[in-house]
Amino acid sequence: MKEKTKVPGSSAIEKIGDRLSLIGTIHVDPKSASFVRETIIHLRPEVVALELDEGRLAALESPGRATGRGGGGSFLAMMLLERFAGEMTGSPPGSEMLRAVEAARAVGARVEFVDLPIGQTIGSLRKLPLKEKVRLGVDLLVSVALLPFGGFNLSKLTENLEEQLRLFRLRYPELSRLLLDVREEYMVARIRDILYFTTGQVIVVVGYGHMKSLARGLNSVMTKPAFSSSITWNLYTGQ
User: Running DSSP on this structure, what letter comes out for residue 14?
Assistant: First the structure.
């Protein structure tokens, strides 16, 4: 059973079963960050799962020291790419992930990472068709050039999302497969595993553009744990 609630600002929360809540956010919106933090503090979940990998969280927490598994040139390239894609889909990572971690630590929740490691995504992007690489390079340059001027309304990013995603897929069929489809399949599998091996509430924080696909993929997943939290004793009476 799914229950979706649109909240003030640019966030939404969707309840799937009795233990799983998806929070869809606009990553660059401070209101989303506040909503994520308040929801985690209120629900006090067992697990807070993030649309990140461990390396990208480390880079967000210490951007000046972004090296290693999730940093350096790969991290910068991914940030630029997601910033560009985010203007179309509402999903470059931002402060709501950091607020989610802070809130999780405050309530004693375990933090899990459900996104593909950045190295795998970057490696796949190198295999993009040439025409998509050229198109992407041009669009990235335009996006970076316009970055200081802002130019998009946060309140409008969640409107006509299906149309935005449709246009993104038409312009970048292989890129959208890698950034959306492949990652979402991985996220569904990771969330399923978390549900199977926990008994408490699970909150998943993702970009608004991923929310519908993840909800569809998780709708048939059991939210009951794969093990029993109770123990039955059988006593032999000798009769």
Answer: E
